[in-house]
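Sample entry (575 residues):
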Amino acid sequence: MTTPNNHTPNNSNPNNPTPNPASPTNPPTTWSPALRPITYPQPHLDLSTAPITTAPTSGTPVVMEPVPDGRAESWRAWGAMATASSSGTPVIVEPVPDGRAESWRAWGAMATASSSGTPVVVEPVPDGRAESWRAWGAMATASSPGTPVVVEPIPDGRGSVAVRELGSGVGGSGWSGGGRGVADPVGDADRLARAEITRIVEPGDPVMGRLIEEYGAVGALAQIRRGELEPEFAETERELANAERRRLNLGQLVTGWAGRAAGCGGRAADDLAAGRLLVPGDPGWPSQLNDLGRVRPYGLWLDGEEDLRFACLRSVSIVGARAATAYGTHAAAELSAGLSDRSWSVISGGAYGIDAAAHRGALAGVAPTVVVLACGTDVCYPSAHADLFRAVRERGLVISESPPGVQPTRLRFLVRNRVIAALSRGTVIVQAALRSGALNTASHASALNRQLMAVPGPITSDVSAGCHTLIRQARATCVTSVPEVIELIGSIGDDLAPTLRGPSHPRDALNEETKRVLDAIPARKPAGLATIANAAALPLTTTLSSLGGLESAGYILRTPDGWRLRPRSSSPTIQ
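Predicted structure, serialized as tokens:
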């Protein structure tokens, strides 16, 4: 994981890695101010038997050791190093640009903490300086935004894990959390502020996104309540709007926010008591939502039993027309059921038509399904889907950017489409007219560089015209089956769809001359050798040879008057 520059091992030759005095059992006496010494359990590692290798980038000696669950090997660096591991996933060590440390960058999506076997995920730190191990369950992340973190054993030796920040740390300690090493990466004040912002500001507002990014949720909320933005931020936002040629009235926008804030009356605490809010920085936050940039959700309200991040690791969005035909609902249900049986989660919007068929098909499989609503998670819209949403809560998740009790609007339907597109690896449009909300989801998927797929329909069907346009413009790939979808979103080279071939017939194996002879033989009245050779335009010897092979294979019958085709009820005995 990370190595202070002032105690880089003396021997960095990868061909001759030797134990370094700065080992876990003999930590160095001089430390970089960016890192704090850590007391390891004794004995921490048997260096006499452990296989030694070196870090690919810096040549730092590291030791390979098994993970307790036996599934993988982990890189344990010498000195005050942290432990990380890979469940069969290749990892490399890369330098941090500021020169303070090194970080583990995984080529896959998942890894495992070597101390506890807890699954962890590698994702970028907001300031772009390094990669951090963001853990699930009993693990945590940096408590201060933008700080690179590493996962390492807790000094008390209880087999748990904790987070050490690669900066000055929180409160000068550099450690987050206590007890079993569990820390809330997002403070209560930040979560409360984001909960209130979800009720004050419409989802996907780029100004609010930049405001939170610049000042944090607490600072952004304070400016909203004050009814005035910081002058520097306001000026920058106006310049950005001019550069993007979009209209922006900051005064009107902030006044509207302040009015809503005054009317909220501190409902955020009640909202948090009534629902579950997932915010950026939480262990379960899907990092792919960060691709949305300034329009990333301020938080997501969840209702259901599944973990959102795990549910979205292998996921596909399936959307389409509300006024779907029987063909469309059948295609959506078949695709969803097949994907779910192959452990791919299905994400959709819970609307009538294609969305509902996609969720029902996914519920017939084994993987969870996720409903992204344009209203509060406690609001059943459409009301006819009460039973469907109840089943999804038991087997998946119902999520929304809006707090409990908020009703849907046309704008919220369009804005939520970006979340549907961002959560999954690809989006399938089953049916869509030329003016359809599904095409809005398709645009978001394209902008996010996600795979965009479309299911073709009858050329006479208006509800498939949008799909045909996407295919014709080469914006979407035509898909007709589950293997074709998985080929586009799965592992390169491992999830290839089988090549489709038409049915084979015995006469396909005949050579061209024999086929010509067979075509020249009459079906009823026998013909002689000369007649057949003339009809086939072949020499007598070639024709006679072909006739013998056809008779042996059972295609023709020889009579005293010549040759004729065998009746259709009889099939060739040899192919």
